[in-house]
């Protein structure tokens, strides 16, 4: 075939693809014209994906369509659109979309990426289990306080020299979720534990990297190509193997009259439903649900703390106000407690808490991307949203006020099952650090860059160092360190009621 014939054929294929794409999108919200095969990828910055997606909002409004490789997605921006989808039409938008990386590992099992009846059963059970071994149980608050004490001691060993806080924070956050899931914490010097944390952190980073994003958009070809995305799956397999080993050990020593943690409760439910051929309580769901809880409880909590400390380094005036409130309410002679939050509105404001969409009919099965960062920066809900200002969460009397647009744990049916535990950890850890140390940056605050690494799966904090300079005066860190409980005593003495 002559060159002109080849070019004509290619042109015909491209035109046909464009027509097919146009027909497929005819009932969807408007959006930029996609190219064959790559869609709108070339119009996006993979290093700042969320930010580059939002530029289309100015052209097409808060709801628009993007073609991300082979995946077509409807993007929701701002509080009104996200609330309408996830809350007002929570039933229709309650499914979990396809995430190629997760699909390859989980194949739809486990809590985080399940749908339908499997998701309903696992979520109901997990919420009940976390109530038994999570917030509201005095022992778990004490466990967080003990980890906060250890964290302060580790910071103190740096003697005010610059250090990277990444693994200091991930060890502490992980120890809390390990006590709930596995019934034990791991020693900070445990090599297998440190290796597990390193792999968990790298998975989190690589998922948001260009390699991770490309795999998500072009998995059909990327799975055959070399690259950093291959390491994601090797690390995920190692983490799941670690969890499976712990589950098998607990199966061999299970005390049926005295379950001590999430895995024990799940194993007991597996025994109850052993004759049910349609049961969702089996080993594969246990491994992957335990992995979901471990990953989120380790990396997302610790990365939030890392970002929090970085923001305080850039805004020392906010740190100073928090420290004054901590000294006034708690002092330096005891560890922070959850009950202190109600008397510390400024500190709490630094860690705030709490189908048709916009007239478009969204066809069943369409991927929907609610961009939560656009909700958290919605100028209609937050004054001067690009500026760090805890005061926007306080009323005229200095009391904490609710804002429905603040949804860091998402909202609706898919909101995070561990959000209360995460809030407890963030408050106690951050307060304990500021109670004992003044944070200093090795570089001038004005030179600190808050831009996240990557921009896909989540906002990964940039690498940085800080100096934790001990504050003068008394400190609870100088007291006798808390005694470890025997392994497996982190929760209540009974299992959850799956019917709740």
From TrEMBL:
Residues 469-500 are annotated as: Disordered. GO terms for molecular function: arachidonate epoxygenase activity; heme binding; iron ion binding; oxidoreductase activity, acting on paired donors, with incorporation or reduction of molecular oxygen, reduced flavin or flavoprotein as one donor, and incorporation of one atom of oxygen. It is a peripheral membrane protein. The keyword Zinc does not apply. Residues 1-24 form the signal peptide. The keyword Heme applies. GO terms for cellular component: endoplasmic reticulum membrane. It is found in: Endoplasmic reticulum membrane; Microsome membrane. Heme binds at residue 416. Keywords: Endoplasmic reticulum, Heme, Iron, Membrane, Metal-binding, Microsome, Monooxygenase, Oxidoreductase, Signal. GO terms for biological process: epoxygenase P450 pathway; xenobiotic metabolic process. This is Cytochrome P450.
């Amino acid at each position: 075939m002559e060159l002109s014939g080849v070019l004509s054929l290619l042109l015909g294929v491209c035109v046909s693809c464009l027509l097919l794409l146009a027909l497929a999108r005819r009932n969807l919200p408007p959006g930029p014209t996609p190219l064959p095969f790559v869609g709108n990828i070339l119009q996006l910055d993979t290093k700042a994906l969320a930010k580059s997606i939002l530029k289309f909002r100015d052209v097409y409004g808060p709801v628009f369509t993007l073609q991300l490789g082979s995946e077509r997605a409807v993007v929701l921006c701002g509080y009104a659109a996200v609330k309408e989808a996830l809350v007002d039409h929570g039933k229709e938008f309650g499914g979990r979309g396809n995430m190629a990386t997760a699909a390859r590992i989980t194949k739809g099992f486990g809590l985080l990426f399940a749908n339908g009846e499997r998701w309903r059963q696992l979520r109901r059970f997990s919420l009940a289990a976390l109530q038994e071994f999570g917030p509201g149980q005095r022992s778990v608050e004490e466990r967080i306080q003990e980890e906060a004490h250890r964290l302060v001691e580790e910071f103190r060993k740096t003697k005010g020299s610059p250090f990277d806080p990444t693994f200091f924070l991930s060890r502490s956050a992980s120890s809390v979720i390990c006590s709930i899931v596995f019934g034990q914490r791991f020693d900070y010097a445990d090599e297998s534990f440190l290796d597990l944390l390193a792999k968990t952190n790298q998975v989190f980073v690589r998922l948001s990297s260009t390699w991770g994003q490309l795999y998500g958009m072009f998995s059909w070809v990327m799975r055959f190509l070399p690259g950093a995305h291959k390491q994601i799956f090797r690390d995920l397999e190692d983490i799941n193997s670690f969890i499976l080993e712990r589950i098998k050990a607990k199966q061999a020593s299970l005390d049926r009259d005295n379950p001590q943690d999430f895995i024990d409760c799940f194993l007991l439910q597996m025994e109850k439903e052993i004759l049910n051929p349609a049961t969702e309580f089996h080993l594969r769901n246990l491994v992957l649900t335990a992995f979901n809880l471990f990953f989120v409880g380790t990396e997302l909590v610790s990365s939030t703390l890392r970002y929090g400390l970085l923001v305080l380094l850039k805004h020392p005036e906010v740190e100073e106000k928090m420290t004054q409130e901590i000294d006034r309410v708690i002092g330096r002679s005891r560890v922070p407690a959850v009950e202190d939050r109600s008397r510390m509105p400024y500190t709490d404001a630094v860690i705030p808490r709490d189908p048709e969409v916009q007239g478009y009919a969204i066809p069943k099965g369409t991927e929907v991307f609610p961009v939560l960062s656009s909700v958290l920066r919605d100028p209609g809900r937050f004054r001067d949203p690009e500026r760090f200002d805890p005061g926007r969460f306080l009323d005229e009397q200095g009391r904490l006020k609710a804002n429905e647009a603040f949804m860091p744990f998402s909202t609706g049916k898919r909101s995070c099952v561990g959000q209360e535990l995460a809030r407890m950890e963030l408050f106690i850890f951050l307060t304990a650090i500021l109670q004992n140390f003044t944070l200093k940056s090795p570089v001038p605050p004005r030179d600190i860059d808050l831009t996240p690494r990557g921009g896909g799966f989540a906002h990964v904090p940039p690498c940085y160092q800080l100096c934790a300079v001990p504050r003068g005066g008394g400190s609870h860190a100088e007291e006798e360190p808390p005694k470890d409980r025997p392994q497996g005593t982190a929760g209540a003495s009974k299992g959850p009621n799956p019917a709740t």
